[in-house]
Amino acid sequence: MAEIFIDNKRYEFEGQTKVLQFILDQGLELPFFCYHPSLSIPANCRQCYVEAGQPVLNRETGEYELDDNGERVIRFFPKLMTACSLDATDGMVIKTHVTSELVRRGQKDILEFILINHPLDCPICDQAGECPLQIQTYKYGPEGSRFEHKKVHKPKRIQLGPRVVLDAERCINCTRCVRFTEEISKSNQLTISQRGDHNYPITAPGTEFDDPYSINTVDICPVGALTSTDFRFKARVWEMSSTPSIDITNAKGCAVDIWTRDNLVMRITPRYNPHVNDYWMPDAGREAYKIYNENRISRPEMVVNKDSIKTSWNNALLTISEKLTGAETGKTLVFASAYASVEDNYAIQQFFARFANTTVIYVPDIKPGTGDDFLITDDQAPNSSGCKLLGINEVDADQAKGMIDSGTYETLVILQEDLVGRGIASTESLTQYFSVYLGTNNNSTSRSASVTIPITTAAEHFGSYVNVDGRIQRTLPAKETLYTDRRLDLQMSMGRLDHYGTRFDNWVSDNNKIDCIPAWEFLVRLSHEMNLEFRYNEAREIIDEIALKNSSFAGISYERMDRELGIALQDQPSKELNPA
Amino acid sequence: MQNFEFTKEELAKIDAIIARYPNPQPAVMPVLWMAQEKYGHVEPDVQKLVARTLNLPEAHVHGVATFYTQYYKERKGKYVLDVCTSFSCQACGGYETLHYLEDKLGIKAGETTPDGMFSIQSVECLGACGYAPMMQITNDVYVNHLTPEKLDKVIDDLKKDQLPEFESIPLVQNRTTAMENE
Amino acid sequence: MSLTDWKAYKPVLIPNIKDYHKIDVYEKHGGYGALKKILADQDTLTPQHVTETVKNAGLRGRGGAGFNTGLKWSFMPKPDGGPRYIAANGDESEPGTFKDRVIFEFNPHTFIEGSIIAAYAMSITTVYVYIRGEYRSWIRMMEKAVSDAYERGYLGQNILKSGFSVDMVLHSGAGAYICGEESSLMESLEGKRGYPRVKPPFPAQKGLWGRPTTINNIESLANVPLIFNNGADWYKGTGAATHPGPLLYGISGHVNRPGVYEYPTGMLVTDLINEVAMGVRGGKRVKALIPGGSSTPPLRGDALDGVRMDSDSLRQAGSMLGTAGMCILDEDTDMVDYLWRVSHFYHHESCGQCTPCREGTGWLEKTLLKIKAGDGTMRDLDLLLDLCTQMEGRTICALADAAAWPVRYTITRFRDEFEARVKNTVYALS
Ligand SMILES: Cc1cc2nc3c(=O)[nH]c(=O)nc-3n(C[C@H](O)[C@H](O)[C@H](O)COP(=O)(O)O)c2cc1C
Ligand code: SF4
Ligand code: SF4
Ligand code: FES
Ligand code: FES
């Protein structure tokens, strides 16, 4: 095993690694801007300076040369080295700002240079609070500036594309955004233009930065030069709480963080998961915040005399219970859903298993040709693989339509699936049935159902989803519902505002809590009503039961999913789900 | 709107250029040169033409075009007078030459005369330091040892579309001793 | 030849022969003889042998850094059957430098012959000749010379039926000084913005298109045939012992007879100024000498005695040989103005890739402009020196150093002039 000494401490390493990456892997700190572990290394910001030396080997013996004190003789490189581009070698000695005055000076010098042409607009900059330049200037920068000249002016507020805005004066020319479009999304839509201190990133004249992954450049821009058109000026970073979750807008299941303020989702950003999405996510996935916030079903609804009215949970439960008890065996068609979690699908599958001959099906939502070979899949739903592994019958849209139109069934129970919106059922055909819709958002199906039960979104519950590659990952509640409380549920995140905000603050209210419960919980309550044996207290119990009962899910648990960033399930779902 | 297009002959020439390199990308500079020769500039539409022709991302071509100062990203006068003011020329009257031209043509460096005939630019060392003050005309011929009289004549000639002749300047030693083989 | 009889020196790199640039004339005077000799006797004159000969002759690069050319060739890895390249550096953009164009114009074939010999020594498949875009007239001359060399079978497939093949391609720059830096030159050749590359990997490992590449200056390659025609010993014995050979001196500035001269290396700068260039105009005194292009630190006119034009002597004197493009500034020169103009150049030419150079070059220029305008303070002088420290050795390529050196040494060596120009307060009260 090779060894390396960082600030007089010995570490071991194997194989090839750059010094900066190694330092970061040890949980140590070294300031940097341009380096990104998934991009090429231009070493252009020069912020990651270290002093580096190598032991001197005796030519004849091949042993380390020792000095009078018996210490290894170290030959230091004459210049400060950029750790990001420096290969670690056996016996290397590194001095960072912790032990080197020269490095401290070097870091300060670079920050002074970067800041001479950087505007002083942190108070109005979206990046403030999560800005590497701001943070590193505080920690390693000079006290003031000796620059007494006019700053270079560059274009501001340039709409690079539909989703990204550029302020070129803030840009520090790290080229991360350009490298992203060249190396990751491969759209090649950005370049650095001009030369010298007039440099800035831009698209070709007359073209748009409409790369389906464009907002990732906002994430990796180390300053506020690139901001999201949508999120711009909406919230300050320190007002939000962030919660790990996954992208539910397609079958890739990119790991994400959901950022909330007062129980509204303000933005969604990618979370590192080397097995799924690395550091990236499609722009479309970030739009999911609208699903979580807007047009939500809150409180159960019932059709009474052709009018849909809000009703109590008790009334809704009673109505459904009566109908199901009275329904003829074999006449209930249950739609499970690739849009719902493994837990909810399992619950609905198990719940209806006790009614003989009830048919439980799901209809995958695949739009061929919409995906790419990166993070966008043809499959529009996050959990087709989960449904498949649970053994739920898969039918295609035409078959499902045939079943609805066949007249075989009397009752429909629909989990989340917008049957009308997807063209599987029509409003008229639904009105032939007693239909229960367990859904998150108002849509033409919810409006046609006899009873509508509001359920939680991925932003409000613990739920697992199996992605297109057979990896199961889970979500945590980011938003409170009317029945959850982040002060009591220790698994929920608490941002600064959540901690210290009071009702009298601008951003704290109860207004954004939805009156909804997880689908499985509704089924538990329904079983109470119907006197059935069907008891779960929390989602964890369901997943543990699945792990015991279904060999495809053997050995899984929430803890493992968290620790291992999801688990690759043994039985790979068939590849036909992902024709690409 | 002007239609920017390479002719069949030009495309054949471009193919020959591409063949000199392992892949088409290196042809971007020679082809930008060709386009500039043809249109007098490489404005965005011309950059697009180059990108299209070489099947390169437009942004890439834009990045290249804006990096190099000899590509005209906007239209210039028919004759671009690049006066060297770098330090050797500065020492020998580069700025005086520039200002003489500015006064004579009534424009400042970086500007173009209203009739579109002349642009003046103050440029960096052109590799003629021993023959200062000097200038280059539209990326082509060098005019050395400039004096007001010489400048007057050059401008008069240019107005008649007569470009100065190339001045061959041998080693000083070889200028002063008789040539062998003569 | 000893350095005292320089007056009897006859140019060999640019010989005084009419129409020598024409291939017929070149051949008539023994041109391409060195190449023929080597290719005819490949068993003795192996590539290794050729490389060793160049190394032992002591030829040092004429592009600025003065690295032993043969030694550089020996860094190329063993051929693996894939393409390998020479990038011949004719970017010639360092202010004060105007000598490679003389080779293009008056002796292109010695350069072409030297390149082919170098290609043979390193098993090169293609020589790319990068010539600055402003040299359009000289590119045309080179086009003619290269096509003549192809026609005579010196370039292309199976050269002179020797089994050795190499191509030569001319590539025009388009106005960017930085493209003279070897890794920027390669990026530019690859059709990109001329951003210098991070080293390592070095060009011999990963150069053009990721393949082994050697970058040599035009004049360096043009020297190669001389070594084989006249022998390594002759070469070693010409000029300065540690930096031998004929050298093109480009003399500019306030002298009576500026221009390009060919003399052995190691000439006394006083001889060059007073005798070769026939002294300073108007009989004035020399205030400063910039010995080898604008990046080399200026020497004071009163400290030139005994200084010779080779890297050792100039290092001792506190400067560098650089490109041997000498600029003489007379006693009336405003050193503040001069330094501002030099800083303006580096500010204008910084590629802008890395922080200290992108920001530092602009800051240097702006500060010098302020001093020039009479608004500077003593503090600005210290600031300038500080900025140099913050730039030197801290960047991807040496442009930042090239920008800092003149500032550092002009201010330290001509401090009185700068102090006279700044406000007479240590700290401006504001
Ligand atoms: C900023 C910068 C500009 C340079 N410009 C030139 C140039 O115009 N011509 C040149 O031959 N070398 C130039 N060089 C030096 C080259 O990088 C390289 O060392 C040289 O071409 C190698 O050739 P040689 O060993 O034959 O001298 C420059 C270096 C730097 C750092
Ligand atoms: S916009 Fe941001 S990511 Fe792009 S180069 Fe500038 S600082 Fe870097
Ligand atoms: S030192 Fe200057 S020219 Fe060289 S890479 Fe850095 S910014 Fe570019
Ligand atoms: S992180 Fe930018 S130079 Fe190393
Ligand atoms: S300084 Fe003007 S040509 Fe060199």
What are the defining features of this structure?
heterotrimer, A: 580 residues, alpha+beta, 8-stranded mixed β-sheet, 17 helices, elongated, disordered C terminus, B: 182 residues, Arc Repressor Mutant, subunit A, Glutaredoxin, 2 domains, 4-stranded mixed β-sheet, binds flavin mononucleotide, binds iron/sulfur cluster, binds FE2/S2 (inorganic) cluster
What is the fold's blueprint, element by element?
The complex is a heterotrimer of chains A (580), B (182) and C (430).
Chain A: E1 2-6, E2 9-13, H1 19-25, E3 49-55, E4 74-76, E5 81-82, E6 92-95, H2 101-116, H3 132-140, E7 158-159, E8 164-166, H4 176-184, E9 191-193, E10 200-202, H5 216-220, E11 226-228, E12 241-246, E13 255-261, E14 264-270, H6 283-286, H7 289-293, E15 301-304, E16 307-310, H8 313-326, E17 332-335, H9 342-353, E18 359-362, H10 384-390, E19 393-394, H11 397-405, E20 411-415, H12 427-431, E21 434-439, H13 444-448, E22 451-454, E23 463-466, E24 471-475, H14 496-500, H15 519-530, H16 539-549, H17 558-563, E25 567-568
Parallel strand pairs in A: 1-6, 17-18, 17-20, 18-19, 20-21, 21-22
Antiparallel strand pairs in A: 1-2, 3-4, 3-5, 3-6, 7-8, 8-11, 9-10, 12-13, 13-14, 15-16, 15-22, 23-24, 24-25
Chain B: H1 8-18, H2 28-39, H3 44-54, H4 58-67, E1 79-84, H5 87-91, H6 94-105, E2 118-123, E3 135-137, E4 142-143, H7 148-159, H8 172-176
Parallel strand pairs in B: 1-2
Antiparallel strand pairs in B: 1-3, 3-4
Helix pairs in contact in B: 2-3, 3-4
Chain C: H1 23-28, H2 33-40, H3 47-57, H4 69-74, E1 85-90, H5 100-106, H6 108-122, E2 126-131, H7 136-151, E3 167-172, H8 182-189, E4 213-217, H9 218-230, H10 232-236, E5 239-240, E6 243-244, E7 246-253, E8 259-264, H11 269-276, E9 286-290, E10 299-300, H12 311-317, E11 325-330, H13 335-349, H14 355-372, H15 378-391, H16 399-413, H17 415-421
Parallel strand pairs in C: 1-2, 1-4, 2-3, 7-11
Antiparallel strand pairs in C: 5-6, 7-8, 9-10, 9-11
The structure holds flavin mononucleotide, iron/sulfur cluster (2 copies) and FE2/S2 (inorganic) cluster (2 copies).
